[in-house]
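4.2 Preliminary Data

To establish feasibility before requesting continued support, the project team ran the inverse folding procedure on a target of 297 residues. The structure was first converted into the token representation described in Section 3, and no sequence information of any kind was made available to the design step. The complete token record follows.
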């Protein structure tokens, strides 16, 4: 299999065991000024942009309604699982009007693979009714309106705004919150406070892509349980280097998705999709390998 862009980028960059990473690990850290933290944070963003030039939302969608529904379904499961479920869902209920009129049991059956299907079905019917009755059957393009929809919080609203409407938004999911703390951008746990802290560090124009890059890094290298510090290209910029495996060989074995020869999660990318991962994901589905991909929601 041809090496992915990310794998090549990792090969080019210093990894643990090299002088750069050792320096980051052993140097006693002085307290960092706010300005120094902001500079370091922006450098991390630039490095991540180089590492993941094709960072993108990993949910398949063709319009704002599909993205809204897919994002609600993505709670507590992988984007890949959602992408495997939504084609049948949108074939059966293509519009808010169709979903608003759905028989709850039938809808639950279709979305069952995504887990928590009773609550999710309730949210989908509730938000579809609200879209039909209060927003003329259209997904609104304002945060204040989106968060009034059943099952839609700030995270979901920011995903929809950033990716379906081009309105900058910071998406604080479990990966983003964890990495923002590991990067010492914030010490907050509450997603709303994390969002506010990160918004102070980066210009608005960066918010949406920054969110994708950080989530990509969290899914592929800086995992919740076993971060692969020894294979992490931004280790020299990370105050949490050493929280995970530092041995380069062992760390490389922890890499996920394309970093470990695995594809990404998107199965139906748009025509202008910039990466190669989804095409391989499709091939993996046809070869029955998808179970291997559902590793880290
Ligand atoms: S904690 Fe480790 S894997 Fe995560 S960003 Fe820092 S060095 Fe990289």
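Position-by-position output of the design step:
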């Amino acid at each position: 299999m041809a090496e992915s862009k990310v794998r090549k980028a990792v090969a080019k960059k210093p990894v643990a065991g090299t002088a750069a990473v050792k320096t980051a690990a052993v140097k006693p850290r002085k307290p960092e000024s706010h300005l120094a933290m902001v500079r370091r944070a922006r450098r991390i963003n630039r490095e991540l942009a180089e590492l993941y030039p094709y960072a993108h939302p990993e949910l398949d969608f063709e319009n704002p309604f599909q993205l809204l529904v897919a994002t609600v379904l993505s709670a507590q499961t992988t984007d890949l699982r959602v992408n495997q479920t939504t084609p049948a869902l949108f074939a059966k209920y293509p519009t808010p009007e169709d979903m608003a009129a759905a028989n709850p049991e039938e809808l639950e059956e279709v979305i069952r693979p995504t887990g928590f299907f009773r609550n999710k079905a309730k949210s989908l019917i509730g938000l579809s009714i609200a879209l039909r009755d209060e927003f003329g059957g259209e997904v609104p393009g304002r945060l204040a309106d989106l968060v009034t929809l059943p099952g839609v919080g700030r995270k979901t609203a920011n995903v929809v705004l950033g990716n379906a409407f081009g309105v900058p938004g910071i998406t604080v999911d479990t990966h983003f919150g964890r990495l923002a703390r590991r990067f010492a951008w914030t010490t907050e746990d509450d997603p709303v406070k994390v969002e506010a802290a990160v918004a102070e560090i980066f210009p608005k124009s960066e918010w949406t892509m920054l969110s994708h890059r950080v989530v990509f890094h969290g899914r592929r290298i800086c995992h919740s349980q076993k971060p692969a510090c020894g294979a992490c290209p931004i280790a020299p910029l990370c105050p949490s280097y050493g929280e995970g495996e530092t041995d380069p060989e062992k760390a490389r074995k922890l890499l996920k998705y394309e970093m470990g020869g695995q594809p990404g999660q998107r199965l139906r990318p748009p025509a202008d999709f910039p990466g190669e991962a989804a095409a391989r994901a499709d091939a993996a589905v046809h070869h029955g390998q998808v179970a291997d991909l559902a590793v880290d929601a």
